[in-house]
Amino acid sequence: RTNPLVLGMETSCDETGIGIVRGTTLLSNTIASSMDEHARYGGVVPEVAARAHLEELVPAIRAATAEAGISLDEIDAVAVTSGPGLSGALMVGVGAAKALAVALGKPVYAVNHLVGHVGADLLRTEDDQTDAPLEYPTIALLVSGGHTSLLLVRDLVSDVELLGETIDDAAGEAFDKVARILGLPYPGGPQIDRVALVGNPAAIRFPRGLSQTKDMARHRYDFSFSGLKTSVARWVEQRQDASEPVPIADVAASFREAVVDILLTKAVAACVDFEVPRLLLGGGVIANARLRQVAAERTDAAGIALRIPPLSLCTDNGAMIAALGAQLIMAGHEPSALDFGADSTLPV
Ligand code: KG4
Ligand code: ZN
């Protein structure tokens, strides 16, 4: 089946995403976020996220079909994130996707959220089909508030290998926690980026987790950010205990430098080790200005082609899920049996 019309649903975290694609052409990408409701807790509250999905899903479906200029009965299939993510949040999307598919008499495809992030790179708009398509193999570095993962993608629908992931906090979570330590509002990533502009990234040498020789045998492609966060907290406390001012810009810039360094050191190492001259970035942390800059510098120096989809396709969204669903259909995969569940730790 060529160029199927697919509606994708994404509810694994705090974004209610509905996207509609025809093959690799993006027709609409509607996102409602419950971010504001989580702000006062300093992080995503699972039940609040699930309840918001329940309220937002149908309006988002209506908005997405209107924007795409289609009616629901035209779609060929529904694709939905079945994991990994927050269980309650996932269950709302999975339930809604099954209900929609059954009501329309159309197949449903359960897909993996992380693989969906890679699928985002396939999408082109109707008036711009010029960009080169996703090429294989590629290394993918996915960094958001919920995940920090390094994948080796030989084929999107049949051969994706998880090389490593965070063993504690996600990178975005570390940005959010450090922002809180510095008295900056949630979400912390954009705030740290902003204050770091005038800071000195070499002012404080914060630790790079899992990069010592002793860690590298077991955790070559894994990440750890909780030690870094604790180290920032301790540094700030010592200043406060001594009644000295905290140089917020320097702390933010030095922290950001440590995160960016560790992410790209490991991503470039994976490209070199597996002789893969391509690196794809995805996830909300890709908005980070310093991360984008250092990624460009280091991939350039190593002869690696860098791919970064537009930010609206990097953050969690339904279009990437629809794109992956369309690939599964075009590769001849069978739809999911209707008794599939939500799996918060779904492997790639
Ligand atoms: O992919 P995303 O929108 O959603 C989920 O994780 O669900 O990512 C949000 C995360 C938050 O932790 C936020 O602080 C981080 O991405 N983030 C950033 C920046 N913008 C957003 N982190 C670092 N620098 C940024 N400019
Ligand atoms: Zn994500």
UniProtKB/TrEMBL annotation:
Instruction: Provide the E.C. number(s) assigned to this enzyme.
Output: 2.3.1.234
Tell me where in or outside the cell this protein is found: Cytoplasm
Q: Where does substrate bind?
A: L142, V143, S144, G145, G146, D176, G189, D193, N288
UniProtKB keywords: Acyltransferase, Cytoplasm, Iron, Metal-binding, Transferase, tRNA processing
Question: Highest taxon of the source?
Answer: Bacteria
Gcp-like domain location is: 26-322
- Binding site residues for Fe cation: H113, H117, D316
Keyword Lyase assigned to the entry: answer is no
MF terms in GO: iron ion binding; tRNA N(6)-L-threonylcarbamoyladenine synthase activity
Give the record's family classification: Belongs to the KAE1 / TsaD family.
| Function statement | Required for the formation of a threonylcarbamoyl group on adenosine at position 37 (t(6)A37) in tRNAs that read codons beginning with adenine. Is involved in the transfer of the threonylcarbamoyl moiety of threonylcarbamoyl-AMP (TC-AMP) to the N6 group of A37, together with TsaE and TsaB. TsaD likely plays a direct catalytic role in this reaction.
Report the protein name in the record: tRNA N6-adenosine threonylcarbamoyltransferase
Q: Which organism is it from?
A: Cryobacterium algoritolerans
Q: Which gene encodes it?
A: tsaD
